[in-house]
Amino acid sequence: MNNYFMSGKLMHKASDHNTKRCEVEKWVFLPHSDFERLKTNPYQEHEAITAARDLMYEDKNAYHCIMLLDEHGDDGLLIEAEGFDYPRLSMFVPDAALIYERYKTSEAELKLHDMIKGT
């Protein structure tokens, strides 16, 4: 059996793994160099975050975020800036490009894919 690989950040002695709903308000593709720069130094300002600043906030039901995608990779950064020009809250999302592809696929297309798989 082959090993399964994924990227993530494990927390040392985590107190819990409770989650809150995150709603992606906008999907933004970034040049690879910009994506890598934000991934390695997430507290820097970026024009994509500034442009979507008004879309990002928290209410009682969810974090309203943007997803920054690497235009030449598979991963993403989920960002909630709380009105600032840099990520105040963020999460690395492995294989975010697959999530985006699923998101932009219509229900009819999904049914067709399922029908094709079943034959």
Short note summarizing the structure:
The two termini are 27 Å apart. The mean pLDDT is 89.
Describe the overall structure.
The chain has helices at about 30-40, 45-50, 95-105, 105-119, and strands at about 20-30, 55-60, 65-70, 75-80, 90-95. The protein has about 120 residues and is of the alpha+beta class. It has one domain (about 20-119). Strands 1, 2, 3, 4 and 5 form a 5-stranded mixed β-sheet that branches. A hairpin with an 8-residue loop joins strand 4 and strand 5 (about 90-95). The protein starts with about 20 loop residues before the first strand and ends with a helix. The mean pLDDT is about 90.
Number of helix segments? 4
**In this structure, how is the largest beta sheet organized?**
5 strands, mixed
Total strands? 5
Radius of gyration: 16 Å
SSE arrangement, N to C = EHHEEEEHH
User: Spans with pLDDT under 50 lasting ≥5 residues?
Assistant: none
**Structural class of the helix and strand makeup?**
alpha+beta
What is the domain total for the residues?
1
| N-C termini distance | 27 Å
Q: What is the arithmetic mean of pLDDT?
A: 89
Percentage of residues in strands: 15-25%
- Helicity range: 25-40%
3D shape: globular
Secondary structure layout plus pairing:
Blueprint: E1 22-30, H1 32-40, H2 47-51, E2 57-58, E3 63-70, E4 76-80, E5 89-93, H3 96-104, H4 107-118
Parallel strand pairs: 1-3
Antiparallel strand pairs: 2-3, 3-4, 4-5
